[in-house]
């Protein structure tokens, strides 16, 4: 530390008391400057390292906490299903945020289902009845296949895409059956609650 002060003082004095004259530098001056810069830089780095070591010894680490064993309980993963993916995609299409379409009907999907039920005038339980599920899925499929007609219907309703649900529900009520027809033309009843 004492040698650093002497070096710094000598360097400052040399700069302060040196006569100002026109200076021309050559290659030898560059090498001398690089050497002096290296020496001064190494002294600065030593001081920084020394100061850090002193500060670490002053500030002691707090006592470590003793490890406690806690039993963690984990919820079983919600199984992902194709029907779950279809429900999530349908909810997202109509503006009810079900999150990522992963097929798992978790909390965000249940919240979206409740929002859908509330919008449609059903009791918001977070669980779809068979009718609510079929209405949602059939409406989504119809909207996807509708093309330009779907866009005209969306533009005609004040609720936008969500308005399609109420439009399709009214149409289903006026002429739809209580079951769905599969690709083979066979009727199936709405039996499951989701």
Explain what you see:
With 194 residues, this protein is mainly alpha-helical. The protein is built from seven helices and two strands. The chain has helices spanning 2-17, 27-58, 82-93, 107-120, 130-145, 148-156, 161-175, and strands spanning 179-181, 187-189. It has a two-stranded antiparallel sheet with strand order 1-2.
Uncertain residue segments: 177-194
Instruction: Please give the number of β-strands.
Output: 2
Give the H and E element order: HHHHHHHEE
Determine the N-to-C terminus distance: 77 Å
Biggest β-sheet: count, sense, barrel? 2 strands, antiparallel
**Gross morphology:** elongated
Overall pLDDT metric:
77
**How large a portion of the residues is in β-strands, by DSSP E?**
under 5%
Number of continuous helical runs: 7
- Report helical residue fraction: 55-70%
For the CA atoms, what is the radius of gyration?
A: 38 Å
Content-based structural category: mainly alpha
- If strands are numbered along the chain, what order do they take across the biggest sheet? 1-2
Quick rundown:
The chain has helices spanning 2-17, 27-58, 82-93, 107-120, 130-145, 148-156, 161-175; strands at residues 179-181, 187-189. It is mainly alpha-helical.
């Amino acid at each position: 530390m004492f040698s650093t002060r002497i070096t710094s003082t000598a360097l400052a004095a040399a700069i302060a008391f040196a006569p100002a004259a026109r200076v021309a530098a050559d290659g030898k001056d560059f090498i001398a400057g690089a050497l002096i810069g290296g020496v001064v830089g190494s002294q600065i780095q030593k001081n920084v390292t020394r100061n850090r070591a002193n500060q670490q010894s002053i500030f002691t680490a707090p006592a470590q906490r003793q490890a406690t064993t806690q039993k963690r309980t984990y919820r079983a993963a919600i199984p992902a299903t194709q029907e779950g993916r279809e429900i999530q995609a349908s909810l997202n299409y109509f503006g009810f945020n079900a999150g990522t379409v992963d097929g798992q009907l978790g909390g965000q999907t249940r919240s979206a289902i409740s929002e859908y039920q509330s919008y449609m005038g059903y009791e918001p339980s977070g669980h779809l009845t068979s009718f609510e599920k079929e209405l949602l899925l059939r409406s989504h499929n119809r909207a996807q296949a509708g093309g330009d007609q779907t866009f005209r219907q969306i533009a005609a309703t004040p609720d936008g895409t969500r308005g399609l649900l109420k439009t399709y529900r009214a149409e289903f009520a006026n002429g739809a059956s209580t079951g769905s027809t599969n690709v083979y033309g066979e009727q199936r009843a709405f039996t499951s609650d989701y």
